[in-house]
Amino acid sequence: MARIELFSDEGFRCDGRRPHELRKMSCRLGTFEQADGSSYVEMGNTRVLATVYGPRETKSNRSRLLFDRAIINCEYSLATFSTPERRRKPRGDFRSIEITNNLKEVYESAILTELYPYSQIDIFLQVLQSDGSNYSACINAATLAIINAGIPIKDIVCACSAGIINDTPMVDLSYIEESMGSNAMLTVALLPKEKQILSMESSGRIHLEAMDSLVDTAINGCMDVNNIMKGTVLNYVME
Amino acid sequence: MLSNIGCIRIMNAETKETAKSAHWKARKKKVLPGDEIADDVTLMRGHGTYVDSDSKLISSVAGHVCRINKLISVLPLKTRYNGEIGDIVVGRIVEVQSQQKRWKVDTNSRLDSILLLSSVNLPGGELRRKTTEDELMMRSFFAEGDLISAEVQSVFSDGSLSLHTRSLKYGKLGQGVLIRVSPSLIERRKTHTHNLPCGVHIILGNNGFIWICPQIDEGTESGGFAVNLDPVSFSDRETIARLRNCIMLLARQKMMLYDTSISYCYDISTEYQAS
Amino acid sequence: MDLILSESEKRFIVDGVKDNCRVDGRECFDYRCIDVESDVISSCAGSGHIRLGNCEIMVGVKCEFSEPSLDESDVGKLEFFVDVSPNASPLFDRKKDSISNNLIAALSHSITPCIDLHSLCVEKGKYVWTVFIDILVLELGSRPNLLDACAIAVKAALYNTKIPKVTIDCETNEPTVSENEIIRIDVSRVPLFITVTRIGNQYVVDATQEEEASSISSVLFAITPDGEITHMKKVKYGSLCPEPLKDVFHKVKDLAIDMHRNLMNALIEESKVRKSTNKISFLF
């Protein structure tokens, strides 16, 4: 198969975006009635559902509960039909476990857990359709679900990915851009108000000199995402 | 099936228009997590806020700002129940712990609430010290799955609630329907138990649990130990079903729930089928 | 862990069913409003999404090449897979519960025989299509109506499944994918499920969680659009009296025929709308 041109000479990416442009992002709060909080996020063709249960008392593992703060439990699953190639298992592979752990760390630092001793907060993420930047879409969805559940959080945590293709940094990579070749990729999760990075993860080779611009690009992407999320939450509060 | 949805939609529009006063769109300041509320250090911070490194008061939830004197708090639209002393709640017994002489009650708060054996009335309203026999009889008073109405007596240091049923108003609930809504939709009022004009009895628990049951005659309250198992009449049943659907609709539209808003919605709905 | 109800609440439900007026005002053989949409996931050959009460299911259909089995060299395969998302219910324990196995068994028993598997053959003895039907439970309401909802969603997903037509070059053995020709799966005989739950001595369809908690047994029926019963099974622990069941047979048959008709109308209408406006469907 001929190699798809990821970045044209005219400055367009393979799906017609400019390097700094996000895909179309839309989100919704409160998709499920049973859960304490839930949300749905669409970033291009990547679609993620998040639900939050808690803070609540757990029956199963009381010994894990902490006396001074709530524990956070995450689970990330990727539907078997979400990827172009069918997956055998929805969860349990290394990447899922890694993302699960990353999410847990992000939200342990973002949620004001010390308000809820002896409780547990469950955050479940379900990717329905995967088209690149799953991890950042998950963080955005989880944040909205937490806000929907009325759980105190420091700020609207948002995330965005960025990569370098043909020496140009670009935001919000799609599946093709993510998978083609040895492109470097970086995902950043941010507390936007104070610009504090909560999570940062990169893969692929990045030249040290390109690092600065890559981080900046990702952060700018986060701020754009944050504006969209703010709009959604504001609409929700106004309802 | 489809026609039903149609009528619900129409009803939504109507109730929304007419019950605007009860709507969330009260002129209150709305904030999002991370928004600065104030940087006045003399203010006290309440629920839903935190102080950042520059000692500014920041919101931690999305909701509207509520200020009582110096206390500033942010109330989210949807949350678990935060108990306050004196609240009336409806809860379900989830565990009988006769060793510790208490019941654990699910009240939609983040930890299970506790009902001590010493804070219930015995059958027949007898007032005396509880004996070991009573301890053994605990499950016959309230068993797992039973619904009770109770009042919040105190809040423990870890945030769980202690309940009491030391009044004939409270106790076990008989036949009826439980609805769960967000606690923030229940308007705080003087009374939370009503006999509605449509002929049913309703308890609007502050914790967002709503109990609807056939009307009870005044003066026959027994603290709920003598549960009436006679079949409920068809008309009562239909009213209860209709009222239940009305409340669900109001809750979905995020409208405040209290006796007038509910009866009003009920009156509008009479044009439509109960289901 | 299931919902626990007090004795008097159960009593209220049982008496209500006897009066033909259930807690939410429905009659015994009324369904709640069902929302169906199809073709929602673009990475699948076909997909469906349904919401019935507080039960929400998504189905994705994917097709892969595979070798046929030796004894039947010209038939394709259908494979079902059910995953209950952790999102579905806070009380649900995925490891202990056999819910997904039961669903897979019931669906493959009843749906596989109703599909023309010969149409899934690419080259006799060499290649056939394996159709993977992946069911993802997003929100778990009551158990009885889960199966009913699954069957509707599967049917909707199969209805809009498009398999590319593939021809095999006899000499080089290279498959070529046709650009504009597609195979569709004939769903006209695919059954829908109706689960009736026994409450007291009566039967109801589309039981809520509360009603499920006050029942002891239920019966599931798979019924084709012609009104034939292709699969029937009693589930849960209680016992049944055969007499009132006979009455139920006729009621569920009529109900199923109605449901089939409504579903097909909805699907046809939906495909028309999509063609004319080319809208990208937005979930929920």
Which word captures the global form of chain A? globular
Give the distance, in angstroms, between the N- and C-terminal Cα atoms of chain B: 10 Å
Kindly report the average pLDDT value of chain A: 88
Distance between the termini of chain A: 50 Å
Query: What is the CA-based Rg of chain B, rounded?
Result: 21 Å
Total beta strands of chain A = 9
CATH homologous superfamily of chain A, by name?
GHMP Kinase, N-terminal domain
Description:
The complex is a heterotrimer of chains A (239), B (275) and C (284). With 239 residues, chain A is α+β, with helices and mostly antiparallel strands. In chain A, 28% of the residues lie in helices and 29% in strands. Chain A has helices spanning 94-110, 134-148, 175-179, 208-238; strands spanning 25-29, 37-43, 46-56, 71-78, 120-129, 158-165, 168-171, 184-191, 196-203. A five-stranded mixed sheet of chain A has the order 1-2-3-5-4. In chain A, strand 8 (184-191) and strand 9 form a beta hairpin. The longest helix of chain A is centred in the last third of the chain and has 31 residues, at 208-238. Chain A is globular and about 60 Å long. The model of chain A has no long low-confidence stretch (mean pLDDT 88). Chain B has two domains: 25-76, OB fold (Dihydrolipoamide Acetyltransferase, E2P), CATH 2.40.50.100; 87-270, Nucleic acid-binding proteins (OB fold (Dihydrolipoamide Acetyltransferase, E2P), Beta Barrel). Helix content of chain B is 20%, strand content 30%. Chain B has helices at 2-18, 132-136, 138-141, 234-252, 259-269, and strands at residues 30-31, 36-38, 44-45, 49-51, 57-59, 63-68, 71-76, 88-97, 102-106, 113-120, 147-155, 161-165, 171-172, 177-180, 193-195, 200-204, 209-214. Chain B has a five-stranded mixed β-barrel. A four-stranded mixed sheet of chain B has the order 1-6-7-3, with no helix packed on it. A four-stranded antiparallel sheet of chain B has the order 14-17-16-15, with helices on one face. Chain B is flat. Mean pLDDT of chain B is 79; it is low at 1-11 and 16-26. Helices cover 29% and strands 32% of the residues of chain C. Chain C has helices at 7-18, 99-111, 143-159, 209-213, 242-277; strands spanning 34-38, 46-52, 55-66, 77-84, 121-123, 127-139, 162-168, 175-184, 192-199, 202-205, 217-223, 229-235. The longest helix of chain C has 36 residues, at 242-277. Chains in contact: A-B, A-C, B-C. At the A-C interface, strand 2, strand 3 and strand 5 of A face strand 3 and strand 6 of C.
